[in-house]
Amino acid sequence: MVALDKPDAKAALELADRLQGSGCWMKVGMELFYAAGPAIVRELKSRGFRIFLDLKMHDIPNTVRGGARSIARLGVDLFNVHGAGGLSMMRAAMEGVRDALESGDAERAPLVIAVTQLTSTSQDVLNAEIGIPGALEDAVVRYAKRAHEAGLQGVVASPLEVSAIKAACGAGFITVTPGIRPRGADVGDQSRITTPRDAVEGGTDYLVIGRPITAADSPEKALDHILKELTQ
Ligand code: C5P
């Protein structure tokens, strides 16, 4: 999944067009969605891309239910909420999807996943700033278990936590993992990272990669390089 973190529709579509035929999903996050809205999702869908709408909803259950209903109507393939919103909030997201299906406004249900802990969050930040005690992996697995209990299909986490999540929630529970950095790439603001190859060998289902592709002089070459490394 390529994180299409671009400031407007023109820049996003230019990049998406260069990655046509790669088989990659496009991840539409806050930067692009807040600028270009539902229209950019429809445009990318019409070009044949599968879409992960990464808006990380975190609000009271009633609001999340309505938000999920609107997202399901848009026809995205996957979207997410924050696990920190708790069980009833996550269940409300699933109810929103059901509302859209039952009213005939959505043809099929998108996958719904929960953010466990952002991949920019370090052990120190978790304990000292966010105020959650204990090991980061334990906090991630706790959120994954709650997401599973709420009926969500998976979680966003670091590739470093995939085996613990699968052990707790089953092999079929989807893991979507940002925090991917090819060897030698700029780490930026990420904290819990691995290479693409280590992530795949660790059992993740979907890699999310942004800047190593989107900030490259040639995004298609950067993607090609990563894909070659994975199949070698
Ligand atoms: O550029 P980079 O490869 O760091 O992009 C990672 C993408 O994944 C960003 O769009 C970021 O918002 C998203 N993401 C993340 N950590 C999460 C959830 C989403 O980095 N836990």
TrEMBL record:
The active site is at K56. Its EC number is 4.1.1.23. It is an enzyme of class 4 (lyase). Substrate binds at residues 5, 27, 54-63, 119, 181, 190, 210-211. Residues 1-226 form the Orotidine 5'-phosphate decarboxylase domain. Pathway: Pyrimidine metabolism; UMP biosynthesis via de novo pathway; UMP from orotate: step 2/2. One of its GO terms (molecular function) is orotidine-5'-phosphate decarboxylase activity. It catalyses: orotidine 5'-phosphate + H(+) = UMP + CO2. InterPro entries: Aldolase_TIM, OMPdecase, OMPdecase_AS, OMPdecase_bac, OMPdeCOase_dom, RibuloseP-bd_barrel. Keywords: Decarboxylase, Lyase, Pyrimidine biosynthesis. Pfam families: OMPdecase (PF00215). Catalyzes the decarboxylation of orotidine 5'-monophosphate (OMP) to uridine 5'-monophosphate (UMP). Homodimer. Belongs to the OMP decarboxylase family. Type 1 subfamily. This is Orotidine 5'-phosphate decarboxylase. It comes from Cohnella hongkongensis.
